[in-house]
């Protein structure tokens, strides 16, 4: 998910900064609890939740992997235009090479609570994960379902509080929302689509991520060895662009990403799609190819889960600033669908 190191040419770095590998790894590999600033009311349709299973940074030796393949990339096509409203539930779709995609997941967010058979609200109290100054909590102000959409909101709390991660508590005044299918739904290969609209902010300090995380995040070693698929990351300091990033050992150096995919305006509804086969990972925005690579065999032959995150910005160019970053800020999700 949340952005990591960039080993791209200096001209691209001048436009936007992603956090370092160390920042990403620290956030991903800490598993510690924390507290909520308010009385928590679960936003799921049942009280049980599943913690984000990110293994603790305990120095576990990674399994041996050898990757000699170099990914190939294709340039994106045209600027993505706003996607039309949903035409209904998930239906079979034609594949480019023949045959049909058959629907395996259709989450339309039609109710008034998160479907706990598919989703868990991820909290820092359960997982220890956070990106910036926010504390992820399970509260209707941060995670809610209404009027046919899921809403993930970052906001300022009335007073500072302790987000009590085990061993590393920190004081903050900002909370936000994150949901994930970890432990409840996952899939190996297929087509995955999220229709979403980003916050309206144009000032730096916000980040949205629509991403996928492996079922076994240590199968080939610590991040990024076991993989991650960022279908879409949006940064409020560069609001007209959405960035994909496919993480794996080697991918950090070769740049399995694209910085040129315009989605304008991002606060309109757009579709963000991944088509994933053993031979190819292709990311499309409103049907236009943004990134297409031939990945190594490892780590992309295990099932991945879906995660949706609204966070506060990090990094030099998108650092959250309480004085200028507009809050509350909400990412809305119209649907999440998958096919095989």
Notes on the structure:
- The chain has 340 residues and is mainly beta.
- Helix content is 6%, strand content 33%.
- It has 4 helices and 18 strands.
- It has helices at residues 10-13, 21-28, 124-127, 251-254; strands at 93-94, 100-101, 103-107, 120-121, 135-136, 143-146, 149-163, 170-176, 178-180, 190-197, 206-214, 228-235, 242-247, 270-276, 281-285, 288-293, 304-312, 329-339.
- Strands 3, 5, 6, 7, 8, 10, 14, 15, 16 and 18 form a 10-stranded mixed β-sheet that branches. Strands 4-9-17-11-12-13 form a 6-stranded antiparallel β-sheet, with no helix packed on it.
- The protein is globular.
- The model is unreliable at 2-36, 46-79 and 81-87 (pLDDT under 50).
Which helices and strands occur, and which strands form pairs?
Layout: H1 10-13, H2 21-28, E1 93-94, E2 100-101, E3 103-107, E4 120-121, H3 124-127, E5 135-136, E6 143-146, E7 149-163, E8 170-176, E9 178-180, E10 190-197, E11 206-214, E12 228-235, E13 242-247, H4 251-254, E14 270-276, E15 281-285, E16 288-293, E17 304-312, E18 329-339
Parallel strand pairs: 5-8
Antiparallel strand pairs: 1-2, 3-18, 4-9, 6-7, 7-8, 7-18, 9-17, 10-14, 10-18, 11-12, 11-17, 12-13, 14-15, 15-16
How many H/I helical runs? 4
Q: Main sheet?
A: 10 strands, mixed
Mean pLDDT: 80
Strand content: 25-35%
Radius of gyration, whole Å: 19 Å
Order of helices and strands: HHEEEEHEEEEEEEEEHEEEEE
Helix- and strand-based class? mainly beta
Give the overall form. globular
Instruction: Summarize the amount of helix as a percent range.
Output: under 10%
Count every beta strand, where a strand is a DSSP E run of 2 or more residues: 18
Taking the alpha carbons of the first and last residues, their distance comes to: 23 Å
């Amino acid at each position: 998910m949340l952005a990591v190191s960039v080993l791209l040419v200096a001209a691209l770095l001048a436009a936007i900064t992603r956090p370092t590998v160390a920042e990403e790894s620290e956030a991903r590999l800490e598993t510690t609890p924390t507290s909520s600033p308010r009385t928590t009311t679960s936003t799921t349709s049942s009280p049980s939740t599943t913690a984000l299973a990110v293994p603790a940074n305990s120095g576990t030796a990674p399994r041996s992997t050898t990757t000699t393949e170099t990914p190939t990339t294709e340039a994106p096509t045209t600027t993505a235009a706003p996607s039309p409203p949903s035409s209904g539930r998930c239906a079979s779709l034609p594949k480019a090479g023949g045959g049909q995609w058959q629907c395996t997941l259709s989450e339309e967010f039609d109710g008034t609570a998160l479907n706990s058979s598919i989703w868990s609200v991820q909290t820092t109290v359960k997982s220890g994960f956070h990106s910036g100054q926010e504390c992820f909590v399970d509260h209707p102000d941060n995670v809610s379902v209404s009027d046919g959409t899921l809403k993930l909101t970052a906001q300022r709390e009335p007073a500072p509080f302790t987000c009590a991660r085990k061993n590393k508590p920190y004081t903050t005044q900002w909370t936000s929302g994150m949901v994930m299918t970890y432990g409840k739904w996952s899939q190996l290969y297929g087509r995955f689509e999220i229709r979403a609209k980003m916050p309206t902010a144009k000032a730096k300090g916000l980040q949205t991520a629509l991403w996928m995380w492996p079922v076994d995040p240590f199968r080939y070693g610590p991040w990024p060895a076991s993989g991650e698929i960022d279908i879409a990351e949006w940064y409020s300091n560069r609001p007209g662009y959405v960035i994909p990033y496919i993480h794996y050992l080697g991918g950090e150096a070769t740049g399995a990403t694209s910085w040129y995919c315009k989605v304008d305006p991002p606060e309109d509804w757009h579709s963000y799609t991944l088509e994933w086969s053993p031979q190819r990972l292709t990311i499309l925005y409103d049907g236009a190819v943004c990134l297409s690579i031939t990945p190594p065999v490892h780590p992309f032959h295990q099932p991945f889960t879906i995660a949706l995150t609204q966070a506060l910005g990090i990094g030099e160019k998108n650092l959250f600033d309480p004085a200028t970053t507009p809050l509350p800020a909400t990412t809305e999700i119209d649907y999440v669908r998958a096919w095989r």
